[in-house]
Amino acid sequence: MSVQPFCLRCDSVLPLEITGNAVVCKLCKLSHSYVDLMNKEIHCRVVFNSRTDEKEDQDDENKEAIGPMTDRKCPQCGNDGMSYTTRQLRGADEGQTVFYLCPVCKYQDNENS
Q1: Beta carbons within 8 Å of 82's beta carbon, 6+ residues apart
Q2: What does the alpha-carbon distance between residue 6 and residue 13 come to, in Å, rounded to a whole number?
Q3: How do the residues of the chain divide into helix, strand and coil, expressed in percent and rounded to 5?
Q4: What is the side-by-side strand order in the sheet with 82-87?
């Protein structure tokens, strides 16, 4: 049996244990003939998003508010305000990392606090 079959009554995954000529569902106790399960075909389909959808999502993110602002001066263009986000990248007993973004020139900087 190459693919794990599903119960015809409750749709749960059937165990690979065969009792005689049958497989018994552990959830609803329905007995399935092993021969019948071998003749079943299972079809699946995977659908991926197109690359154009990704670009549109990124454009929408850039149009939204850029987040909280701080008085930090941009080292590249000299703008007096930068937006920031924080993430806990290191251990819980260590400080968080602050990521800064200049809204004018898009310069990115970070600081381990």
Answers
A1: 69, 70, 72, 73, 74, 100, 101, 102, 103, 109
A2: 4
A3: 15, 25, 60
A4: 69-70, 82-87, 97-101, 108-112
Tell me if 84 sits within 8 A of 67, measured CB to CB: yes
Rg (CA), the chain: 28
Question: Which token pair is 2?
Answer: 């190459």
Which pTM value belongs to this model?
0.43
According to DSSP, residue 44 is labeled -
pLDDT digit string, tens, across residues 12-67 = 888 877 667 888 888 899 888 877 777 667 676 788 877 775 555 555 544 444 78
Joined tokens for residue 41: 């075909």
How many Å apart are CA 112 and CA 87, to the nearest integer? 10
DSSP 8-state symbol, 76: T
Cα–chain-centroid distance for residue 102? 28
Helix (H) / strand (E) containing 85: strand 82-87
